[in-house]
Design a protein that fits this description.
By secondary structure, the protein is mostly beta strands. The chain folds into two domains: 104 residues, Immunoglobulins (Immunoglobulin-like); 111 residues, Immunoglobulin-like. The chain has two helices and 17 strands.
Length: 246
């Protein structure tokens, strides 16, 4: 058989299949607003209740079988009582912003049936959570001094092999100026094998990135702790650099 003559028939079959499937399994529910934008949610205000109202657009009664969520912070509730054609129903969900921070986008999958087949509807909840703890404290949890907090407790160089002692490893620490003053820091690496660099000026309530470069040639094998420091406004902020050579 000439394969070229098969193409129209194949195309006809493939072209009709989706249409036939769609006709056999039309949608069951139509939600008024399947996506909810909560904008800004404050954690201290507690849980937020969401309502997704729908209409049965099928020609038979429809039952909600289940509602799956993508996050444990969403707790759905719904009625399994059959909704008649043209009837109205609702899926509710409670969003708990506890211990959350920043943008969120979660989905709920509604599974329904008219007794002949199942259909899936996706519902969306999005917004932004303002945590009860200020963001700068969350992202800089370690208090290093009266002037600075940081994203890490110490700078970890981790493990060097003996044959890696001529290599330079770079790490950084993010310092946050907690004061109301502009600081002009002075950096002391505390070791000739270590280079330390950072901005000459740190504005009030802002972050600064301090970079460390360590070339451990001729350092003794074993664990090491190098005591570096940042001097500003008469305050010394000690930052340890830790690692291992073996």
């Amino acid at each position: 058989m000439n394969p070229i003559r098969c193409l129209p028939l194949l195309g006809l079959v493939l072209g009709l299949s989706p249409v036939a499937t769609a006709q056999q399994h039309p949608r069951l529910l139509q939600f008024d607003a399947p996506e909810r934008n909560l904008d800004t949610v404050r954690e201290i205000d507690g849980p937020v209740r969401l309502r997704y109202e729908f209409t049965n657009v099928a020609d038979k009664p429809v039952v909600l079988l289940d509602v799956h969520t993508q996050c444990g912070c969403l707790e759905p509730t719904f009625d399994r009582k059959a909704v008649e054609p043209g009837g109205r129903g609702v899926v509710e969900a409670v969003f708990d912003p506890r211990n959350r921070l920043g943008d969120f986008l979660f989905g709920l999958t509604v599974i329904s049936t008219n007794g002949d087949y199942k259909k899936f509807n996706t519902l969306i909840a999005r917004g932004y959570v303002v945590n009860r703890v200020p963001e700068w404290q969350i992202f800089h949890p370690y208090v290093l001094s009266d002037l600075f907090r940081a994203d890490v407790e110490a700078v970890g160089m981790r493990r060097f092999r003996i044959w890696e002692q001529m290599r330079t490893r770079t790490r950084e620490i993010r310092l946050y100026n907690t004061s109301d003053r502009t600081l002009h820091p002075r950096y002391e690496s505390g070791c000739g094998y270590l280079k330390m660099s950072g901005p000459e000026e740190i504005a009030p309530h802002s972050e600064a990135v301090v970079v460390y470069e360590l070339t451990p040639c001729y350092m003794d094998p074993g664990p090491f702790v190098i005591r570096s420091s940042v001097h500003a406004d008469g305050t010394e902020t000690v930052i340890e650099v830790r690692g291992l050579i073996d």
